[in-house]
Write a structure and sequence with these properties.
Elements lengths: L4 H12 L4 E4 L2 E8 L2 E8 H27 L5 H15 L6 E4 L13 E4 L1 H9 L3 E6 L6 H22 L12 H28 L5 H8 L4 E7 L5 E7 L4 H9 L11 E3 L19 E4 L4 E3 L1
Antiparallel strand pairs: 1-2, 2-3, 3-6, 4-5, 7-8, 7-10, 8-9, 10-11
Helix pairs in contact: 2-3
């Protein structure tokens, strides 16, 4: 299991004396036995690059916001404190890396009374810990690679529950019969399997995309049933989907997916009365265009 960041500070001196052990490409660990438990310090190169990118982006946005507040000529101390609190909330834990000096109650807001500087000691500590996290296990005699692999399985299980409750919305369940509840869960499980398949496809063909972002983009593609009445009283039915935009087409190309071919038009008998000789658009007996849920989208 993971541990709070304070544990890393507590055992950092002892862990610094332990040698690194390579468990896989770009991942290495250190082991520290304590009583009936083992602490595992893991370091991931990819995670280090990711955390540094996030920190730099957050700090850059925080500093830009501070500059905007200082440049406002009509702002007073009370408004400054409120907006400063909102800026610190947006920056998160990275806001503590800057030491911000605010004016006192009787001072105006200017560069002499409102300024900031980087806390180099804290920044060096955070920079040194980028990509590192401390794990704790009761398996005192385990292989480092096996301990790290089991933790990765645990994170995947937690991610599965998060996806089922979030993106796939398995809850709430409004069914009362046991068979229908089981069917609801079964369909949610099938959806999760497709979700995992999509995630594997992104890793292979579209690194950097997530299933959530892909679904957000592709859900705009809609399937519609177009009903066009003919002059002899019948109805021409065509099932069509909307044309993907550039972003959607790029995702489909990256994932090597193709939309199904448009089905051929079907003409059926209609109970509508024969239309008049007036062929102006729309005809008097025009039904409309419906989407796949039966909702009229064009009158």
């Amino acid at each position: 299991m993971g541990t709070p960041r304070g544990h890393l500070t507590r055992y950092e001196a002892e862990l610094s004396e332990k040698p690194w052990e390579e468990v896989r490409s770009a991942v290495r660990v250190k082991l520290l036995s304590k009583e009936q438990e083992v602490y595992v310090l893991a370091e991931s190169r990819d995670r280090r690059f990711k955390e540094r990118g996030i920190r730099l982006r957050k700090l850059r946005a925080f500093v830009e916001r501070l500059k905007e507040l200082r440049s406002q000529k009509t702002i007073d101390r009370d408004k400054l404190l409120k907006k400063l609190g909102a800026a610190e909330k947006a920056a998160g834990r990275f806001a503590r890396l800057l030491e911000v000096v605010v004016p006192t109650e009787d001072q105006p807001v200017n560069p002499q009374t409102f300024h900031w500087k980087l806390n180099r000691g804290k920044y060096r500590q955070v920079h040194r810990r980028d990509g590192r996290y401390l794990l704790r296990t009761n398996q005192t005699a385990g292989d480092p690679e096996e301990l790290w692999r089991q933790y990765m399985i645990l994170t995947e299980v937690e991610d599965a529950f998060r996806n089922l409750k979030g993106d796939l919305a398995i809850r709430p369940i409004h069914h009362q019969l046991e068979s229908r509840i089981e069917a609801h869960i079964f369909i949610a499980f099938i959806a999760y399997c497709l979700h995992v398949t999509l995630r594997q496809m992104t890793r292979a063909h579209a690194h950097g995309l997530t299933p959530r972002s892909i679904l957000e983009q592709l859900k705009a593609i809609q399937m519609m049933d177009v009903h066009i009445p003919t002059t002899d009283g019948r109805v021409l039915k065509m099932r069509r989907y909307t044309k993907p935009d550039k972003a959607q087409q790029l995702i489909l190309t990256q994932l090597k997916l193709r939309l199904p071919a448009q089905s051929l038009p079907a003409i059926t008998a209609s109970a509508l009365s024969a239309c008049s000789e007036d062929l102006s658009w729309p005809p008097s007996n025009f039904i409309g265009i419906f989407n796949s849920r039966g909702k009229k989208v064009v009158e």
